[in-house]
Structure formats: C-alpha cells, structure tokens
C-alpha cells in the first residue's frame, strides 16, 4: 500500500518566518503590531483572491475590532455593533459551512467543533434580540481568537492535518444521508446501464432488419438502386427508437457513435459489399459509401430534429478529438462532413434533396462549431473547417478564413489547395533559428568593423546560449552611475535565477522584514476624507474656513501635486 502523499498547494505568505511573525503580532495585544499584522493579512487576501481561507477572514475581522477598541475613539454602542458583525460572520463562516441538505441547529454544530453554546447565544442576541453588553462582546472576541489560534493557526504551524478552510462545500452528513445519496447514485448508474443495454438492442434490431432488406436487394440485383420503403417491422422499431430518443437522447447518441453502428466494423462493410481496405479512402476528403449511407437513412429521417442533429454533431467532434485509430477517425469525420453537407445553403435538385438525412436547414452555433473542429485535429480538419466557413450565416472576413485554413493545413501537415503551406508567396523568406542567429552575428560583426575602435583580427565570440546578460565594464559603470544614491546596484554575478522563485533575490534572508526600508511615512487617505466631510458647508468667504484648520495636519494633496509626483518618478 503506497504511503499517503502530502498535499501541496500555493499559499500567500513568503516563508514560515512570515507566518510565525504574523501570528505573534496578531496576539501581541499591542495596537501597532496588530495593525501591522492586519496590513499583512490585507496583502494575503490580495494574493488569495476569492479563495482566502475563512479562518484568515474571521481572524482579521476580530483583530480589527480589538484595534479599534484600543484607540478609545469609538462609543460603546459603535463597538458593540463592530463586535457583533465580526461574531456573526464567524458563526456564518465556520458553523454554517457544515450544514447539510437538512438544516441542523447551530448549537449542535458548535458542540462538535468545541465551541461553547454561549457563543451561539451571543450571535443570536446580536441578530434577533437586544444587543449584548460590550463586556460580553470583548469576551466572545477573545475566546474566538484563541479558538482560531488553536484550531487553525497553530495546527498549520505544526504541519498537522488541516481541513480545507478555503472551501465551503465540506459538510458533515450523518450516516443516513450518506447512505441515501449512495443509493441514489447507485440507482442512477443502474438506470444508465439499462438504458445503454436497451439502446443497443434497438439498434441491433434495426441493423438486422436492414441487412435483410439488403439481401433482398442483392437477390434482385438492385443493391445500387433506391431502397424500398420501411416495412411494418422496421417501422415499429423506428417508432421505438424515436420514443427512446425523447426520453434518453444522450444515451442513444452514445450508443450510436460506438463501433458496430455509425462506425461500421470490417465484417459489416463486407456484408454490404464495401471494401474495408483503408487504401481506397481519401482521409483528406472523407465521404460515406452510398450503400452505408442508405443503410442508416431511415433512422436519420426519424431522428432529424435540430436538437438531435446538433447534439450528435457535438458528440462526433468530441469523439474525433479523442480518437487514435484511422478507421474510426475516417468514418467520424465522414459523418460530420455529411451533416454539414446536408445543411449547406447551396440549392440542389429535388431528387438530391430527397437523399439527404435531413432537409430543413439548422442554425448551428458556428463559433462553437469552429472551436470543436479545431480541437479535434485530423487529416480531414481543413476540409471540415472549409465546409463550416462556407456555410456560416455571418461568415468571417476572407483574410481571416484564409489564414485560419492555412494554419490548420500547416498543423495537420496536409495539402488543401490554396491553403497549403507550399503555396506561400516565395517573396516572403522563411526564417529558421540558425538563419536568424547567423544574421544577428553578421550584423554585429559589421557594426564592429565600421566602429573607430575596431582592430583587425579581433574575432567575434559566438552567441552564448546562457540567458544571463553579458555586460561590459563601461555598461556596468554607466548603470551604477544612474543608480547612485539608491539601494540598488547592477548584479554582475553568475546567478542561477531558475533556482530562485519569483519574488526572491539571491542572498535574501528568510526574515519577512528584509525588504522594508529603514524610514518611511504613511498617508491615510481615509482620514483626510473624513476631515473634509466634517468641514461645514461654506456660506461666505472660504479663506476663513481654511484658516480654522489645525496647522499641524499639513496641507492636503491636490490633483496638481499628484501629477507632479507622477511626472518625477523614474523606473529602472
């Protein structure tokens, strides 16, 4: 028995050290460290996107309440509302994600997760009753932070087995519900098996009747002429097939594309006096033998609804994309070609119209059809694509069609008329990697030959295969002069960058604060907006209002100032 492999996934933190430092700051009790930790959590949420673990979301909400509480700037009622929202979100995130199809009491779910009942009662009072006191809110917040630290943060740190906190689809189902679902799935599989069996029986009965008709035509030497009308037995079978299609259309389509039905076997072809040798068929322009097409003609006349034709065409393309044998690929592409041919807008004689498997034109989803055709590359793909492009109600531009067909022919290595790669204009040279390297080397030599510092006999080194940039001493000195005064410099070492993940540089320590600058200032835009909102509306001279502002706050940033800052930025 193979050992269970450890599940690996991408995380938002840089290293274990960053995780440990963040956990320590969250539970430090100091507002400055907790604020810094909240900023790091905001960065994590930006990296996680919509898959942020719910435990991280809940921790950030609860710690933010403690930080705002420690400032002393909010009233008690405001703090109760903040705590209440954080507590309610915790219960919704952590507890209700364990609900099954049948709703269970939150107290029962909380007891399974070692959450006391008074937490659920606190949330219930927040949403349905009188607001609790601030003391109970603070107590609930402290308990939930400790619970999250024990159940999520510490277990992650110790490398224990962790539930998928980022998913809300995990449900604790009781044994009865699991067994009921298992029974439903088993019954569904059984119905599908019985449906496939019935579909094959109906199609085999259809083939048996048609082979009898063909033997009768052979006795009369009329096998190449029109086939007679359906007999009473064949009519009854066709009625059964039509009824089955109305109930289980997908199952019937799955059975039809199997070997022995729309994809004939060698024995079936020989029974219809068709040579099964693949040498007689052109894989570039597939077409069905006329006898084999007439063999299935009665069934197509019964199942010629637009929905059925659309679904079987999609199924044929899907089978073609997964097909490896040339025999199946040929007949699948031949049926696709026949369907597209019957749907053609070209007006034909009535006699030919009667020999089509369906007459009424169907409006396909042409963009999806082109995508399905290109996703199933085979020798006949350019031919099928040409049929689709010719039949589109809103055709693509001629240049787009030509380029698409040419690319398709190049990919499938087939020759289809004007779209063949051999017909490319000879005036456009064909570049190879070797020719481009020689051309680059020649241009470099010519440039050095015409330079004043060029000395005869100085050979040019061949281009290096290393991706590292080879810089001359003058270039390094030039770039360092530009970077003078900044903490950056030009790296001239041979560094194997492929061994370093994105976001890390050579020699970087594991300390998460290694990239922080020594001195920095922060600008809180939210505080400035609040101060602007608190200024009363002007009733007279606006200069008096500006003079009443405290000088310690400093001037506000204007759009002109921001434009000047942007214009002065330089990126290296």
Automatic annotation (TrEMBL):
Compositional bias (Basic and acidic residues): 177-193
Annotated GO MF terms: endonuclease activity
Region called Disordered, residue ranges: 166-193, 441-465
Biased composition (Polar residues): 441-458
GO biological process, one term: maturation of 5.8S rRNA
A GO cellular-component term linked to this record: Las1 complex
Protein's name according to its UniProt entry: Ribosomal biogenesis protein LAS1L
Species per Swiss-Prot/TrEMBL record: Astyanax mexicanus
């Amino acid at each position: 028995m193979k050992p269970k492999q450890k599940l690996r996934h991408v995380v938002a933190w840089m290293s274990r050290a960053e995780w440990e430092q963040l956990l320590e700051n969250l539970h430090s009790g100091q507002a400055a460290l907790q604020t810094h930790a909240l900023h790091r959590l905001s960065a994590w949420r930006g990296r996680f996107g919509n898959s942020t673990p719910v435990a991280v979301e809940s921790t950030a909400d609860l710690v933010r309440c403690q930080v705002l509480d420690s400032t002393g700037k909010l009233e008690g009622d405001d703090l109760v509302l903040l705590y209440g929202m954080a507590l309610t979100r915790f219960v919704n995130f952590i507890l209700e994600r364990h609900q099954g199809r049948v709703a269970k009491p939150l107290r029962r779910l909380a007891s399974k997760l070692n959450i006391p009942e008074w937490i659920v009662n606190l949330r219930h009072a927040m949403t349905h009753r009188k607001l609790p006191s601030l003391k109970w809110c603070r107590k609930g917040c402290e308990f939930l932070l400790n619970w999250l630290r024990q159940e999520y943060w510490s277990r992650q740190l110790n490398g224990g087995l962790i539930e998928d906190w980022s998913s809300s689809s995990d449900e604790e189902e009781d044994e009865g519900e699991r067994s009921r679902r298992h029974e439903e799935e088993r019954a569904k599989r059984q119905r599908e098996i019985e449906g496939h069996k019935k579909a094959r029986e109906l199609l085999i009965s259809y083939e048996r009747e048609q082979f009898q008709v063909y033997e009768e035509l052979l006795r009369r030497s009329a096998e190449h002429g029109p086939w007679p009308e359906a007999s009473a037995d064949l009519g009854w079978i066709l009625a059964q097939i039509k009824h089955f299609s109305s109930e289980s259309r997908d199952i019937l389509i799955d059975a039809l594309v199997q070997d022995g039905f729309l994809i004939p076997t060698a024995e079936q072809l020989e029974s219809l006096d068709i040579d099964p040798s693949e040498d007689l068929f052109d894989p570039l322009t597939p077409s069905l033998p006329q006898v084999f097409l007439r063999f299935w003609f009665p069934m197509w006349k019964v199942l010629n609804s637009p929905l059925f034709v659309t679904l079987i065409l999609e199924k044929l393309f899907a089978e073609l994309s997964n097909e490896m044998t040339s025999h199946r690929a040929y007949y699948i592409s031949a049926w696709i070609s026949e369907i597209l041919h019957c749907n053609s807008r070209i007006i034909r004689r009535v006699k030919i119209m009667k020999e089509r498997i369906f007459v009424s034109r169907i409006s396909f989803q042409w963009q999806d059809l082109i995508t399905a055709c290109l996703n199933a590359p085979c020798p006949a793909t350019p031919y099928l694509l040409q049929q689709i492009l010719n039949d589109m109600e809103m055709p693509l531009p001629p240049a787009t069609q030509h380029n698409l067909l040419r690319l398709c022919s190049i990919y499938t290595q087939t020759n289809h008329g004007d779209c063949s790669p051999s017909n490319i204009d000879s005036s456009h040279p064909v570049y190879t990697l070797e020719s481009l390297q020689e051309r680059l080397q020649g241009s470099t030599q010519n440039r050095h030959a015409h330079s004043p510092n060029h000395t005869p006999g100085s050979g040019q080194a061949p281009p290096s295969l290393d991706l590292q940039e080879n810089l001359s001493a003058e270039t390094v000195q030039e770039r360092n002069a530009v970077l003078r005064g900044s903490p950056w410099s030009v790296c001239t070492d041979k560094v194997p960058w492929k061994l370093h993940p994105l976001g890390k540089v050579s020699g970087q320590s594991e300390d998460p604060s290694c990239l922080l600058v020594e001195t920095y200032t922060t600008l809180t835009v939210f505080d400035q907006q609040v101060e602007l909102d608190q200024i009363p509306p002007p009733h007279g001279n606006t200069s008096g209002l500006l003079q009443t502002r405290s000088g310690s706050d400093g001037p506000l940033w204007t759009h002109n100032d921001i434009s000047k800052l942007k214009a002065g930025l330089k990126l290296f």
